[in-house]
Amino acid sequence: MSAVIAGVEHARDARAVAAPARVALLGTGTVGRAVLARLAGWSGTPLGTRVSLVHVANTRRVLADAGGLCPRRAGAAFHARLAEAPACGVDALQAQDAKAERYGLVATLGQLGTRIVIDATASEAVAGQHAQWLAQGIHVVTACKLGQGTSLARWRAIQAAAAHGGSQYGDSATVGAGLPLLRSLRELQAGGDRIHAVAGVLSGSLAWLFNYYDGLRPFSAFVRAARVAGYTEPDPRDDLSGEDVRRKLLILARAAGVQLEAGEVEVSSLVPPQLAALSAGEVDAALPSLDATLRERFAQAWKAGGKLRFIARLERDACGGAQARVGLETLAFDHPLAGGTGTDNRVAIWSDRYREQPLLIQGPGAGAQVTAAGLLDDVLRIAGR
Ligand SMILES: NC(=O)C1=CN([C@@H]2O[C@H](COP(=O)(O)OP(=O)(O)OC[C@H]3O[C@@H](n4cnc5c(N)ncnc54)[C@H](O)[C@@H]3O)[C@@H](O)[C@H]2O)C=CC1
Ligand SMILES: N[C@@H](CC=O)C(=O)O
C-alpha cells in the first residue's frame, strides 16, 4: 500500500474510531434519571466523547435531536418545566408526540455508525421491540427483564435477531443490577466449564426487606420504604410474587445453557390472592394484608434459629434436565447464602472448576446508580474505543 493510501486509510480509521455511538434512552424513572445524571457527569471527559444522546422518551413525551441532546438539560426537561432547565448549548430540543416515538427513535438514530437503544422501562411493548431493533442492526442495552426473562420464544427471537443483525444485546443490568453474574457464567463456559448449579438471593428489594424486617413493625411499611428508595419494580407485587426473581433465574439459566420455559420455574409467591387481584392503583392501601403472614413466618424462622431469605435455585442433573425454584427459605445464620447487607444479592455458582466450593458473587442488587452504571458499561463496551 502506498504511503498516501495508507494515510487516507488511517484518517478514515481515526474518524471511525472517533465517531460517538448514537444513543436513545427509553424510560426516565428511577433508572432512566440516573442514566441521564451519569451521562451528564461525563460531559467534557473522554467518556463523554464516546456517546451522543439523541433521543429520550417516557410514556408522555419525547425529546429528540439528531445533532445530540445535552443529558443534563434533557434530565431537567423531564423533571421540571423546560423553561427552567439550565441552558447548555443545545439549540434544538424538540418535544414530539409520544405516539410517534417508535418511528422517531429509528429515524433519529439514523442509518450509519453504532446505534444503541437503552431500555430503562418495565414495558412489555418496548421489550416486544427488542428483536426488531436488533434485526435492523441497532444494539439494545436493557435493564428490563421482559426481553430475555419471559417466554423461551422471545428469548430465542432475541438471540436470532442479534445474530441476523450483527448487533449486541447488553443485559448486564437485568440480573444483579450490573453485578458480574451473567458475565461470569459466560466466561466460565467460554473456558470449557459446564454450569452445574446456581443459587442465591437475586432480588435487591427482597434482600433489603428481609435484612431489615424485624417482626415488630409492619412488613407493609418496609415495602413502602423499599419502593420509595427505588428498589422495587414499579408495581411491588412483581417483586413480592417472585415474578421478578423468576425472570432473573430464567435469564441466568438460559445463559447457562438451560433453556427453561417460564412455567418450569416453581415459584412460591408472598402475595395473597386478594392482593394479587387488585388494580395497580389499589395496591398501596392493601399492602397491610401481607403483615400477619410475614410476622408469623419471621417468628417461626427466629424460633428455628434462622433468617428468612428469598432464594432462587437452579440445579442441573446428569441427564440434561434441570430443576428451578424460587421462594422464601429459612437459612441458618451462618449459611453461605444468608450473608450480605442492604440490597445485596449473593449468588453461588457451581461449575466444573468450582465443584465443591462455589464461586460466590455478592454486591448491591438494586438501586438507580448501580443499575445505570451497569447499563452504561454495556453501552461503552458496544461503543468501543
Ligand atoms: N430500580 C432498580 O433498582 C432496578 C430496575 N431495573 C429495571 O429497570 C426498569 C426501570 O425501572 P425503574 O426505573 O425503577 O421504573 P420506573 O417506573 O421508575 O420508570 C419507568 C419509566 O419507563 C417509562 N416508560 C414506560 N413505558 C414506556 C414506553 N412504552 N416508552 C417509553 N418509556 C416508557 C415510564 O414513563 C417511566 O419513565 C425496570 O424494567 C426494572 O425492572 C433493573 C435493575 C434494578
Ligand atoms: N426490583 C428489582 C430491581 C432490580 O432488578 C429487585 O428488587 O431486585
UniProtKB/TrEMBL annotation:
Keywords: Amino-acid biosynthesis, Methionine biosynthesis, NADP, Oxidoreductase, Threonine biosynthesis. Pathway: Amino-acid biosynthesis; L-threonine biosynthesis; L-threonine from L-aspartate: step 3/5; Amino-acid biosynthesis; L-methionine biosynthesis via de novo pathway; L-homoserine from L-aspartate: step 3/3. Its EC number is 1.1.1.3. It comes from the Bacteria. Transmembrane segments: none annotated. Pfam families: Homoserine_dh, NAD_binding_3. Residues 27-167 form the Aspartate/homoserine dehydrogenase NAD-binding domain. It catalyses: L-homoserine + NAD(+) = L-aspartate 4-semialdehyde + NADH + H(+); L-homoserine + NADP(+) = L-aspartate 4-semialdehyde + NADPH + H(+). Residues 180-380 form the Homoserine dehydrogenase catalytic domain. Its cofactor is a metal cation. It is an enzyme of class 1 (oxidoreductase). PROSITE patterns: HOMOSER_DHGENASE. Coiled coil: none annotated. Belongs to the homoserine dehydrogenase family. This is Homoserine dehydrogenase. It comes from Lysobacter koreensis.
